[in-house]
Amino acid sequence: MDSGSINKILGNIRSFIPANAAELEHFRINYLGKKGIITNLFAELKNAAPGQRKEFGRVLNELKSSAENILLQFSHLGEEKDKSAPDDLTLPAEPLQIGSLHPVSITRQKIVDIFARIGFTVSEGPEIEDDWHNFSALNFPPNHPAREMQDTFFVEKNPDLALRTHTSSVQVRVMENTQPPIRTISPGRVYRNEAISARAHCFFHQVEGLYIDEKVSFADLKQTLYYFVHEMFGTETQTRFRPSYFPFTEPSAEMDISCLICKGAGCAVCKHTGWVEILGCGMVHPNVLDNCKINSSKFTGFAFGMGIERIVMLKYGINDIRILFENDKRFLQQFVSAT
Ligand code: PHE
Predict the structure, then answer these.
(1) Residues 287, 329: one domain?
(2) 32/152 same-domain check
(3) Is the terminal CB of the chain with fewer CB neighbours within 10 Å at N or C?
């Protein structure tokens, strides 16, 4: 091949400007591919006259490196999106993934809001508690069977440290540090060493309430809870109180509401009674006030405590507590629009 033709090829290579990745690839195949122009010229090298072979080789190497330079110089084209194909503006947008609050969080916030409207503040405390705050200050005598009511996960023995079995422990801390009037609720996670089933879990969440002032009566307790039930479940919801026992309240009661699922007619959720228990409550035992250095001859108070999961299950018609803690997105996504 004469030097004029070679120079022409060299000129073509050097002046080549690809518009896109496809043109660049076409260039590569055309010059450097298996049957490309430069590859073929290299094959001719052995036929060149011995005197010219060296010069021919030099020229071919220059062609090759010029072509490789072009590939390198425009290599970014391959990484970019092919601009020649415009976006299809009629395609629907990528769906926006919106997260959701957990139903337990939604319900806890609702409960906190309801009590905030009548002046209750929120108190929090540690999940690992000592014996005093979880039991002794709350009038559980040592070795009293009442401690067995709440199967405890112990963390350490002597002195005893345990995962709190209720958030009443937080209220002991509040009473120790504040003089009445006290009006507070304590939402939080609690732990009990129970077999996990559709109705019970080894951890769950509570909101406990405490109101201490002069002349606080059982009537105040009932009115406060009526208000709560009507705000939470609707004004048509019925309530009833049953006598009960807790070491830290006297008298003590449990409150039932008419079953939200069957409206009192009887169903599996209410075990065909028409009623479901939602909380424990009572007048704070004078021993508890004394333990916390609050004058029990001057002040009286009421306390109540409820499990948030129980309320979630009733409100959303969920019949197995375990599903609340499985993090199954199909379940959780149903609460995207709930507030
Ligand atoms: N602390 C009790 C429980 O966890 C609930 C309760 C609180 C009962 C206050 C009465 C008064 O079961």
Answers:
(1) yes
(2) no
(3) C
Task: For the chain of 339 residues, list the mean pLDDT of each consecutive stretch of 10.
Answer: 84 91 92 93 88 89 93 82 71 82 95 98 96 94 73 85 95 96 97 89 96 97 97 94 96 95 82 93 98 97 97 90 92 82
Pair 65, 150 in one domain: no
Give the residue, by CA position, lying nearest to ligand 1 atom 10.
281
Q: For residue 57, what are the domain limits?
A: 3-78
pLDDT at res. 264: 79
- Ligand 1 and 249: CB distance under 6 A: yes
- Is the CB of residue 211 below 6 angstroms from any atom belonging to ligand 1? no
Which CATH number do you get for residue 262? 3.30.930.10
Average pLDDT, the chain: 91
Give a yes or no: residue 91 inside a domain.
Answer: no
131 and 258 fall within a common domain = yes
Residue 314 C-alpha to ligand 1 middle, in angstroms? Answer: 19
Nearest CA to ligand 1 atom 6: 305
Looking at the fold, whether 290 and 331 belong to one and the same domain comes out as: yes
Q: Quick check: is 96 in a domain?
A: no
Residue 245 Cα to ligand 1 middle (Å): 10
Contacts of residue 267, Cβ cutoff 8 Å, sequence gap at least 6? 259, 261
Number of domains in the chain: 2
Contacts of residues 310-318 at CB distance under 8 Å and 24 or more positions apart, as own/partner, are 310/276, 310/278, 311/107, 311/111, 311/232, 311/278, 312/103, 312/104, 312/107, 314/233, 314/260, 314/261, 314/269, 314/276, 314/278, 315/107, 315/233, 315/260, 316/103, 317/261, 318/103
User: How far, in Å, is the centroid of ligand 1 from the Cα of 281?
Assistant: 6
Question: Does 170 contact ligand 1 (Cβ within 6 A)?
Answer: no
Ligand 1 pocket, residue 166 CB under 6 Å:
yes
The DSSP bridge pattern shows strands 203-213 and 182-191 to be: antiparallel
Say if ligand 1 is within 6 A of residue 254 CB. Answer: no
If asked whether residues 185 and 332 sit together in one domain, one would say: yes
Ligand 1 centre to CA of 338 (Å) is: 28
